[in-house]
Amino acid sequence: MPKLICTFLLSVYSIIILAQSMPAALTVERIMRDPNWIGTSPSNPQWSADGKFLFFNWNPDQNISDSLYYITNENKSPVKASVQQKLTSVLANSIEYNRLKTGYVYAKFGDVFFTDIKTGKTKRITETVEPENNPRFSFNDSKVVFNRGQNLYAWNIATGETQQLTNIKGIASAATAAGNSTSGGNNSSLSAVTKDNLSEQEDWLKKDQLRYFEILALRKEKREKENNYTKETKPKELRSINIGDEALQGLNISPDGRFINYRLFKPSANAKNTIVPDYVTESGFTTDIPARTKVGIVSGNSEYFFYDRIKDTVIKIKTDSLPGIYDLPDYVNDYPLQLETRKNKAIARSVTIPGFYWSPGGEHAVLEIRSDDHKDRWLMLWDTATYQLTLLDRQRDEAWIGGPGIYGSVGWINEQEFWFQSEESGYSHLYVFNVKQGKKKPLTNGNYEIQKAQLSNDKKFFYITTNEVHPGEQHFYTLEIGSGKKERLTNHTGSHQVTISPDEKQLAILYSSVTQPWELYLQENLNGGRKIKNTVAAQITFKAKSDEFKSYPWQEPAVITITARDGAPIYARLYKPENPLPNRPAVLFIHGAGYLQNAHKWWSQYFREYMFNNLLAQQGYYVLDMDYRGSAGYGRNWRTGIYRHMGGKDLSDHIDAANFLEKNFSVDPKRIGLYGGSYGGFITLMGLFTAPDVFAAGAALRPVTDWANYNHPYTSNILNEPYTDSISYRRSSPVYFAEGLKGDLLICHGMVDVNVHYQDAVKLVQRLIELGKDNWELASYPMEDHGFIEPSSWTDEYKRIFKLFERVLKK
Hints:
By secondary structure, the chain is of the alpha+beta class. 36% of the residues are buried.
């Protein structure tokens, strides 16, 4: 029988078997077309500034989108917020307190407001057409400073006066100012502009006029005396800082009002952006969507400055003396010529300063500085008297600096103690540096991660979220700074995402387990969390599971441990068929990257895949979903296990998983498939191309096929840059290994994907055509981005995946 007819009949047969054997409630169409049949979970809980309302997004009525709901201290039954409440509510995460927490400021509708907590009264500081933003307290809390345009202004709380603090001008504004100064017909201004541009003839004529016309000379003398008197009696003008054609960013002021810090950014003239063609449009014409640059493209250069308002001095921050600033990364040892060249040039590495952190009184500033090659992070103390930088902490990683809390989880406990997170020990933990004593001490330690940290209002302890109990659980604790005593405030297996009320007396908790989607709970926080007394969390919402969803016997996958070939333990979710088929097929689901995990004990963001994996298990497949090398939650070594070789240890982990299934469940080694999206699609390709005898079929969804096509922030961390580390890109990109394809491949890709561009799929298809491969299929989705939106697209994609596995793994 011709192969085409066989394939068609097998597909029809698979669909018939699927329809006959599956409960009516669970089909690909049911799962993908109507995900809301699961139920509806609340999200984004936020306290009002006064702590009287807890707002959250929710959709219990199955409307087109979520609405804003709230509860109060008096009424715990959710109520839908009115339009007026949405407009006028002030949220706790949008306000900025003064040091004594007697008042706070916030921006709303483009204006700035000040609330006196003692009186409960709110003042509108600005009411202008031009928007103001980023209000904060300064001048020892006597003034409110805010941004308007590219300048800072200060509002005096006592007098109500507003003062302009900076006079920053670019080329356009400087030109306008110059034009305005000469347009009024004032002779003296005009003279000042033109006097240095006189020709010899004009200069002679001017002198001759003054020599022979006495009144002209007298008027000139009078005018000069008037100008000199005006200069002597005129108040000192605000210094003008000309930034040219550079973009002003991060404009801020010290708490005492003395220093202003900012950075100037100049985009690279050669940074070429990509485009994504959109073929299905309302106009009927193809349009181009502007997209990102590719890895290795330098976006621009930044310079960093302090302005001392007292000394009227601008200080440029120099970083060429940072400890280790000339150090070369280890990978250049693989390139002798590059190594020799870079040693001889000895150029200081370029850096970025993402954070300026002022102590509460403005006595100190800590600068967080990162090398642009991602290998170093420095915390430097800036001396306000000498303008010098002193090292507090340096973290060096030959892979890349990262991990939970490493970006922005820093601050001051008091005027002398600065806290931060670091992976120095191999896991992200809390540290405190005493700038007076010059000493650093850890607040936490162990083989677990501090995933979130928040300093208490009285600054005597931290609220922290960790995975200390298990890498797949998230619990909430208090940590006393002085004693180091830690107390757990949550108890149930799963994940607890906690939002603390402004007065710290209540905890809003989003909780979920493996089979229980997120619900909202409210828990009393006795004695600031330092004395629990068996407080019980009250459940607020009850709609995460519909009655129909509850009626299906969903399998709770076991979280197991697989030993990798190098002895490392790998956590995985295992779905087992109730009635295994004689030929025992298996499928590996591969989660995406970015930095996440999926072999955990809470409700997965891959809820469609959770249901699809249930469907596969129901149809007789063993399904394994593992936290391969590079996944979140397991510390520095696991995080960087893919450095310079994506498709290395992360793929071998999946090969080891296939061997595990064969050894422990008698899975047929010739009937193992894999599927996944984004990074999961990439691993699928690497598996089929470089381990073709292990995997018989795979569905690569929106996969990266050539890492040189991807963005800079993500890719340069792991693979460095294509022109400096070509070895990494060559061994990590599937397009170079396509000749190894033996099994059946399905590629699915959205054509308006602005993350992993459709170009990746097109390039791989061309390569497969040139290689003469015919055991592949490309399904294109003209109106879908990286994450699909339309249920019809999800349904089409997963029907194709299921048909692939039924046709190949069960034949």
